[in-house]
C-alpha cells in the first residue's frame, strides 16, 4: 500500500494536544501506511508527544510553530497575522505537496479563509463548502452542504454546491447518479428566497445532473435525497438542531434500570451520527486539496475519526474529481 | 364563564372538512363557553356538518363562502382574488369583532398577507411573526419565532420579534423575566450575519429586557433560553428538522416485541411536541387579533389543539399586551 501523509493542526479545538496527540498515536497504529506531520506549540505539544511515545516515531515528523489561531479570532485577522500558526503551517504542508490532506479542529472561518488563500479553489468554484453526512431513516447516508463555511450564498454558489455534492456522493457514498435537492421552507416552486428558487432553475438546467427539487427540514433524514444543498447558516442550524434533539433524547435523566439502559444504548447507537462525540469530521470541498474540519469539542476518538476521514478522502481523490466535473461541464454558462 | 367566539377556516390544510368539522364538534363539547363561526364551501362543509350534527347547533353559526385559498397560491394572488375565500372571511369576522380569534390550516403566506391587510399589526410592529413552543430537555417549553412567516428579516425586525416573544413568554409560559436569545452559528459576538449581530446590539440596548446573547441549534432544547429569535427560513428549517429527527426515531421499522413497543411509546411521548400530529398550532403574533396557524397536515386531534390554543390566546389577551409593550417602550429609537 502506498504511503499517505496527513498534516495535523495539533492545537485546534477546545482541548489541543491532550486530545489530538492520543488520536494521532491511534491513527498511526491503525494504519501502517500513514505518515503524519504534526504542527503545534513547542512546550505543550512535545510534552504530550513524549507521553504518547511519538517524539521519535519513524512515521511522524514534528514542526513546532510560534502561533495558534483562537476561536475568537476573525478570519481576516488570522489571515493577516497567523502566518506562523499551526493551522496555517498545516495548510502550507498540503499546498507544498508534503502532505496529501490536512485536519484541524480549529476556528472554521479562519480555516476556510486560510485554505482559500493557501490552496485556492478548483477552477469554476468560487467558494468551498463544508460538507457532512446525515444518517437516513432506512439506513445509509445523505450529504448536507454547506454546514457553516458560507453564512449566505447566492444562487450560483448554491448550484455549484449541488455539483460539488454530486461528486462527493459519487466518490464517498458510491452512488452513481445521486439525487440532488435544495433545502427550502416548502416543496412548491413558489416557496423560499429568490436565491433558492433561482438555484433550483440553475440545477435543473445542468445536463446529467439528477436534480429532484426542494426538500423541507423534515426530509433531511427521510432518504428522499442523496445530497441536500443550503447556505452555511441554515445548514449549520439544521445540523446542530439535530444534535440538540439527539442530546435531549440522550438526556434520559438519571433513570436507572435495565430498560432505561437498553433504551439509552439503542438511542445512542441510532443517533451516533448526530452525536458530535461520535460522528466527526466535516470536509471543506472545492479546494485543491483535502481539508477536514474536526468538531471543536471533539474528543480523541472523534479526532481520530477526522484523521481516518482525511485518509479516505485522499484515496477517493475528491478534489481531482470535482475539478474534472467543473472542467468538463462549466457552470457559469448556466449561472448567467 | 363569558362566551368566547372563534372563527374557523374549515377548508384549509390538506384535508378540510373531514378533519376540521370533527375537531370543531369536539371543541364545542369540551368547552361549554365556546362559540364557533365556520367558513367554507357549501356542499362539502354542509355534508360534514350534517354528519357531525353541527348544522343546527346552538353555538355554531355557518357562513358558506365561494372560494378557497390553495397551498399553491401566491400570497399576492390570494390577496387580490381571495376576497370571498373561507380564510379571508374568517379573518374578516375577527376584524369586525364577531370573533375574538381565528384558526386556519391553510397557506401560511396567504394567511400572513391577508391577516396584515385585514387586521393590521399593532403600532410599532412592522411584521407579524409565527411563534411555536419547543420542549426542553429538563421539562417545560421555550418559544421559537419566526418559524416561517418571514423568509428574511433585518436587524430591527428580529429585535422586535424578541420583544414580542418576551410578551408571549410572560403570558403563555408565565415567566416574569424570560431569557431572550438569538439563534446563530456560534456563541461568539463575531459570528453570524450582520443582521443578527446588529439585532443582538438592539436587544441588548432595550431597557428591562433580559437578552442573553446568541444560542446555537443544539441549544434549542437545552433549557438555556425561554425565547429564541431567528428569521422565518431558519426557524422553519430548525422546527421541521426536529420533526425529521423525531420521525427517524419513531421509524423503528416493524420491530415487534414488548421492548420495542415500550420504546416507541416512550419516544412518542418524549417527542410529542416535535410531532406535528400531536403538538399543533403556531400563532401569528404582532397583529391586532389572535390568529392561529394549524399544521397543514394536521389531523382532527391536532386541529382541535389549534382551536384550544386560540381560546387560550383570547384568555391571555396577548395582542393587547404586545401593543402595550410597544406603546410604553417603542423600539424605533434603538433601531436607528
TrEMBL record, chains A, B:
Cross-referenced InterPro entries, in alphabetical order?
Answer: FA_synthesis, Phospholipid_synth_PlsX-like
Q: Is-annotated flag, keyword Cell membrane?
A: no
- Location in the cell: Cytoplasm
Which GO terms of the molecular function aspect are on file?
acyltransferase activity
| Keyword entries, A-Z | Acyltransferase, Cytoplasm, Lipid biosynthesis, Lipid metabolism, Phospholipid biosynthesis, Phospholipid metabolism, Transferase
Q: The organism sits in which domain of life?
A: Bacteria
Q: Report any Pfam family annotated for this entry.
A: FA_synthesis
Q: Give the pathway annotation.
A: Lipid metabolism; phospholipid metabolism
Principal cellular location given in the protein's record:
cytoplasm
> So what does this thing catalyse?
a fatty acyl-[ACP] + phosphate = an acyl phosphate + holo-[ACP]
EC number per UniProt: 2.3.1.274
> What top-tier enzyme class does this entry carry?
transferase
Keyword Oxidoreductase part of the UniProt annotation:
no
HAMAP family the UniProt entry points to = PlsX
Q: What does this protein do?
A: Catalyzes the reversible formation of acyl-phosphate (acyl-PO(4)) from acyl-[acyl-carrier-protein] (acyl-ACP). This enzyme utilizes acyl-ACP as fatty acyl donor, but not acyl-CoA.
The family annotation for this protein states: Belongs to the PlsX family.
Q: What quaternary structure, including any partners, is listed in this protein's UniProt entry?
A: Homodimer. Probably interacts with PlsY.
This protein is called Phosphate acyltransferase
Originating organism: Zobellella aerophila
Q: Which gene encodes it?
A: plsX
Amino acid at each position: 500500500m502506498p504511503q499517505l501523509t496527513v498534516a495535523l493542526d495539533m492545537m485546534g479545538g477546545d482541548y489541543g494536544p491532550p486530545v489530538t496527540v492520543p488520536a494521532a498515536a491511534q491513527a498511526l497504529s491503525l494504519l501502517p501506511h500513514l505518515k503524519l506531520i504534526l504542527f503545534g506549540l513547542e512546550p505543550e505539544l512535545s510534552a504530550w508527544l513524549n507521553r504518547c511515545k511519538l517524539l521519535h516515531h519513524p512515521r511522524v515528523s514534528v514542526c513546532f510553530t510560534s502561533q495558534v489561531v483562537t476561536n475568537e479570532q476573525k478570519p481576516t485577522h488570522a489571515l493577516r497575522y497567523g502566518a506562523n500558526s499551526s493551522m496555517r503551517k498545516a495548510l502550507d504542508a498540503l499546498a507544498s505537496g508534503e502532505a496529501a490532506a490536512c485536519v484541524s479542529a480549529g476556528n472554521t472561518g479562519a480555516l476556510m479563509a486560510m485554505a482559500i488563500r493557501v490552496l485556492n479553489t478548483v477552477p469554476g468554484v468560487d467558494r468551498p463548502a463544508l460538507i457532512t453526512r446525515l444518517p437516513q431513516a432506512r439506513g445509509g447516508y445523505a450529504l448536507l452542504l454547506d454546514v457553516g463555511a458560507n453564512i449566505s450564498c447566492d444562487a450560483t454558489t448554491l448550484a455549484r454546491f449541488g455539483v460539488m455534492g454530486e461528486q462527493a456522493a459519487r466518490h464517498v457514498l458510491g452512488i452513481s447518479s445521486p439525487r440532488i435537492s435544495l433545502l427550502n421552507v416548502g416543496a412548491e416552486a413558489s416557496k423560499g428566497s429568490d436565491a433558492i428558487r433561482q438555484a433550483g432553475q440553475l440545477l435543473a438546467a445542468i445536463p446529467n445532473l439528477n436534480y429532484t427539487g426542494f426538500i423541507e427540514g423534515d426530509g433531511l433524514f427521510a432518504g428522499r435525497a442523496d445530497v441536500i444543498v443550503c447556505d452555511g447558516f441554515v445548514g449549520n442550524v439544521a445540523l446542530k438542531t439535530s444534535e440538540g434533539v439527539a442530546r435531549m433524547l440522550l438526556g434520559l435523566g438519571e433513570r436507572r434500570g435495565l430498560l432505561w439502559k437498553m433504551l439509552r444504548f439503542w438511542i445512542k447507537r441510532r443517533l451516533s451520527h448526530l452525536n458530535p462525540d461520535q460522528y466527526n469530521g466535516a470536509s471543506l470541498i472545492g479546494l485543491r486539496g483535502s481539508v477536514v474540519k474536526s468538531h471543536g469539542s471533539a474528543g480523541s476518538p472523534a479526532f481520530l475519526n477526522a484523521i481516518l476521514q482525511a485518509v479516505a478522502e485522499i484515496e477517493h481523490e475528491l478534489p481531482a474529481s470535482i475539478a474534472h466535473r467543473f472542467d468538463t461541464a462549466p457552470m457559469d454558462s448556466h449561472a448567467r
